[in-house]
Amino acid sequence: MLAVFLLYTSIAGGTPQLRPSQLKGRTAEVSIVGKVVAPVERSGRTIRFRIKDVEGGSAVRLPVTYTGSVPDLFKTDRDISLKGSLRNGVFVGAPGTLVTKCPSKYTAKKDS
Amino acid sequence: MPELGRAALIVCLGLALYAVVAGALAAVQGRRRLAESAENAVLASFGAALVAAAVLFAALVQNDFSFVYVADHTSRQLPLGYTISAFWGGQEGSLLLWLLILTGFSAAAVIFGRRSARSLLGWAVPILGGVTVFFSFLLVAVSTPFATQAAPPDGAGLNPSLQNPYMLAHPPMLYLGFVGLTIPFAFAMGALLARRADELWIVVTRRWTLVAWTFLGFGQLLGAHWAYVEVGWGGYFAWDPVENAALMPWLAATAFLHSVMIQEKRGMLKIWNVILVVGAFGLALFGTFLTRSGIISSIHSFTESSIGPWFLGFIGVVLVGSIALVLSRLPMLRSKTRLESPVSREATFLYNNLLLVAFCLTILWGVLYPILTAWVRGEPVTVGPPYYNFFLKAFGLPLLLLMGIGPLIAWRRASLRGLGRTFAWPAGVALGCGVVLLALGAGSSIPGLVGYTFCAFVLASITLEFIRGTRARRALSPSGSWPGAFASLVGRNRRRYGGYVVHASIVLLAVGVVGSSAYDKVADQRLRPGESMAVGDYRLRYVDSEQRRGANAQEIRAVVEVSRDGERLGTLEPGKNRYFAEQQVSNEAAIRSDKLNGEDLFLIADQIDEDGTLFLKALVKPLVNLIWIAGFVFLGGAGIALWPDAREQRRLAVRYGGRDSLARV
Prior knowledge:
The complex is a heterodimer of chains A (112) and B (665).
Chain A: H1 2-13, E1 15-18, H2 20-23, E2 30-43, E3 46-52, E4 62-67, E5 79-87, E6 90-93, E7 99-100
Parallel strand pairs in A: 1-2, 4-6
Antiparallel strand pairs in A: 2-3, 2-5, 3-4, 5-6, 5-7
Chain B: H1 2-29, H2 32-61, H3 68-73, H4 80-85, H5 91-116, H6 118-142, H7 165-180, H8 182-193, H9 200-231, H10 241-266, H11 270-293, H12 308-328, H13 330-333, H14 345-377, E1 381-382, H15 385-405, H16 416-439, H17 446-476, H18 482-492, H19 494-518, E2 521-527, E3 532-535, E4 538-549, E5 553-564, E6 567-572, E7 575-579, E8 584-588, E9 590-593, E10 600-608, E11 614-621, H20 625-642, H21 646-656
Antiparallel strand pairs in B: 2-11, 3-4, 4-5, 5-6, 5-7, 7-8, 9-10, 10-11
């Protein structure tokens, strides 16, 4: 049975989950997890911003563009996850895949 | 006051330690007085936990911000109800609630067990004590709710998304379910340690398992409704790790509730049942670990905390210890009887178990996949809803079918002719239903059509069971009325017919889930005031946007006129609230529920621009309301199965005999 899971998951494919600093020019579809860096520009339904690694001091600031529903909690400094792929150096998010991580249910984040 | 709380927790830890040591010593040496003293320690530990909980409760209600916990999770403006819910709004309080429920359940199990299952209690007490030791140790040494500070003028407040009536009921219900699984686990281990291979432990803990399972099931449905109404993305379950964390032990407990019947009736599956109860308890612990360790990223994103490694260690101890114990008792657990035919009631129970466990493992695999791939490949790979939905269909549809077959098929060995006779009616109804649905256009989703046909089959076979049973009852006393015969049928077999009602609720749930996921319609459009869009049979006309000032938020609403087939159905106002104090925006979806066909029209105002341009998302979710109705049917069925039954008690008392009887289970 485990074999079936393995087969299914490897064929139907999960999505690799990366930090902005790990992307390094990869263009396959991935899910990226990072922290939103100001400024966030809006035009119509499209938003443009940059994201950095949630932890660690990496200097990578990945430019992102996304069109579609934006969760309520989306704002600067929030941790987000977004599916999409890199095109010409800009990470293009797939509509409806932008997920904001709730400020933790169990700990009050003093800074947010 | 905080000193009192801390002291109570230390006393609780001490009592639990004593229950472990004295209880084990008493069980090994057969010392009755010492065993009673260990039992009393379990009772007293509940008292100590109660004192600790009362201290935290008082601090919350009095806004005593010198408690770090109170200052972090409440504020002066917070309404009283949410101030109380902050008890389980944070990690330390949640752990304390867990300890309180655990010691309360343990005390009740000791009191009932003294009357009914002395021989098991001997070893169950140190096991219960051991679990209590773990939780009270965490609260004393790792994550205390009684840390103090110089009181700040006001607290940090509770996350707005948790300020919701569902928050009052949903988490405690899940806890009651998680913790309740400890009791059958403790008695199963107690039976193995006492070298009892019979079914006494199952009979003694049957109601405990049912109660835990009912809370867990209903709690999850409440969570789903919360997500649907409040979070407003148009769904109710997203296969998030935290949701899966509660679903897995429920599935394992469901398998357990079914397979124990085979052991009771036929003396089979003894090893399997012990493994299931260990699995259910282990998954309940794992679920707590998942939500606390931050090891898996989830939209719920619980921050990493210090208790993760402790939990992992405890789960390891529980699993290794239980497996070693089961292995050492293997010869004793071998079944006397074998499966006689692959076409029999026993066999369908077995298939049901395999499917439930397979589904449970699939989910576990999906949850762990990012961790495993991170180890193997160096980067985590996540699997999403397509993975889970695929296996939901692959395992869920056969499960549904079995629910119709199981109750009707004969024990031991079913003949082919008998099968034909038994299933002629339900199969006919199901096929007829399938054809009608196909004609109505349900063929747009093959799994949906198959699911509905199976649902019809199950409902028909349940109805048939009720009709046959009532007829047989009535034949026994021809002078009685039909309703009287029906009531006496259910009253005399509460467990069986309660179970059928639960099956009916699962069918309702399936109908709702299939309808709202396989036959839903979605439309997404940019509208200027005055423009219209269509979704399903509905026509939506965007009149204009409105702004108003609410008590604590600026409310922006899009006024949308809804009509269907030229008939005006009224207006809906999806929009957004911009909360002043918390500086947060919240999406306020608008839902129109059709009372007649259970369909929802779900509107989300994705964005309302300054100039009034609206980005509207509209979903039509057929039959979704059956899911919530299923919750109440589920409760009703579980209630029937749980209701005490004097006749059953007497029968069991005769079976297990003597002082070790089941005067009251």
